[in-house]
Structures are given as C-alpha cells and as structure tokens.
Amino acid sequence: MMKFYLVDVKDINSNIPRSNFSEADLDNLAEIILESGGIIRPLVLKPTDAENYTVIDGHFEYYAALKAKEKNPRKGEMVNAFVISPKNEDILLKQVAAFREFNYSNTIENITSTGTEKSEIRLEKHELSLIDKQINELRVELAQEKQERQKLYEYIKSLETQIPKQITPLEAFNSLNVLELTFRLRTAGFTDKKSVQVAETIEKVRKKKSFESLKDVIERVTITSGKKQVKGISGDKMVDIIDSWSRLVFK
C-alpha cells in the first residue's frame, strides 16, 4: 500500500535532470508553493534506503519544491508525498503509469486542439489577407477605370468641339462667304454662273442689313437678267435650298 508522509526535500532525489524543466516555470511554482504553504499535489516517492527517496511521479513539483527551499529554507523544507511500499511497488507503479498516460493523452489533445485553433486563426488571417489584397486590387482597378472614363469623356468632348455645327439656311445666308454660298447654291440646283451671281448679291445686300427671314432673302436678293432685275432666288428654289441644305452640315 501507499502511505502519506511529510518528507524533507533534501532527502529526495530525481533521476530526471532539472534542466528538462524551465527555470522560469519552476520559479513561478516555487513562489506559489511558498505562498500556499506547500504543494497541493503530493509527490509519489520510492524509498532507496531508510532515509532517502527517489521520485516516481511529480518530478516537476519536486524541483519546484527544491526551488522553494532555496528561496526560503524554513517554508520550503517539507513536502507532501505518497511513499510506495516495496511489496505493492509493481501495482502502484502501474497506477502511476496509467495516470501519466491519461495526463499525456489530455495534454496531446489540448495541444492538438490548441494547434488546430492556431491553424484556424492563421487560416483566417490568411483569408483576411487575401480579401484585403483583392479589395486593394479592386480599388486600383476602379481607380484605373475612373481615369479611363475621364480620358474617354475628355476625348469625346474634344471631338464634339471638332464636329461641325449644323446651321439653318437663314444663318447661312447671313454668315457664309461668297465661296461657301456658291458651293451650297450649286447643291440646290443653281448653275455655276447663277450661283456666283446670287452669292455675290447676298454678300452685298446683307452688309446693309442682315436678313430677317427667308422671305426677306427672296425679296431683297435680285440679279440682272438681260436688261431687267429679277429675283435671284424664287420661292420654289428656296424650297430646294431648304431641302438640300438641311442635309448638309455647315461650319
């Protein structure tokens, strides 16, 4: 059977090196042991002779208790321990081994769980990083598209300024020069000679006063035909002008 004792730390040894444990962790537990007045989890010891023991289970606790004794020899002198009886050693060692295996499995499970959580966190961070990258790429694309649209808009506006504006026949009679008027009159069916005559007359007449209407053009534009003055543009010809000029674009 096992018996519960208070054992002096100086009488205990461990076959596991102290270097296997973090000094920071040992120091932290040593402080807790001193504050609480002892270790809550008893060591499992095996007697090596009448006064000395070796640790079977609780090596970390043993070294922490040893650290506590180094810090405060009076408070850290004694530790709680179960001492294995030699005749029950085999069965008790099996129990210790079973507890170790159970604790190891739980530790592995916790580590695996923690590792999985960390992996999930890393995965989430990676996914967020990819999303941020995609958002930034979209922002760049949108900015580029905006610039392209602006360039296209400016190009269209520049083309619009270059597109000749269509003007009405009355505006043409009041603004086009003789050469332009001659060409336009030809498109309406005037002969070359008459086109020049009418165009020159229009330029002379409008210098005195701009035409107020197409009827005004018909009445005021007269040319010499033989010994008499006749209308340079008849009513029917004005209809032809309106029809042909409506299909032309004037600057």
From TrEMBL:
Keywords, ordered alphabetically: Coiled coil
Coiled coil: 128-162
Keyword Transmembrane helix: no
SUPFAM superfamilies noted in UniProt: ParB/Sulfiredoxin (SSF110849)
InterPro entries found in the cross-reference section: ParB/Sulfiredoxin_sf (IPR036086), ParB_N (IPR003115)
Domain ParB-like N-terminal intervals: 7-71
A Pfam family matched in the record: ParB_N
Lyase recorded as keyword: no
Protein name per the record: Chromosome partitioning protein ParB
Organism: Nostoc piscinale CENA21
